[in-house]
Structure prediction request, 98 residues.
Amino acid sequence: MCDKRVSDLIELLIAEENFIEYKIQVHGKTERGDGYLGKITFVSVTGKTKKENTKELNLVIKTSAQNELLRNELPIKELFELEIYIYDKVVPTFRNFQ
Prediction:
């Protein structure tokens, strides 16, 4: 499916979203050399929750590069935080202008 870090993140989210029956489907991921700062994995989780509701989650999971030299040379954490800010604040503001 995907590497252990991504699998652990998905399992944590499944528990938080109260899934009791679910199917995980990996739609794709970046290949070696595609991502400069990390890997991106596209995942869908579909199933039923404890309240018997049908639920679907479409996820884009970005994990940072594990190369220690790269991690020491680049401000990866700060770059990821900036990206989160862009998606949380800037993109919604631009959408409001449309």
Summary: The radius of gyration is 16 Å. The mean pLDDT is 85.
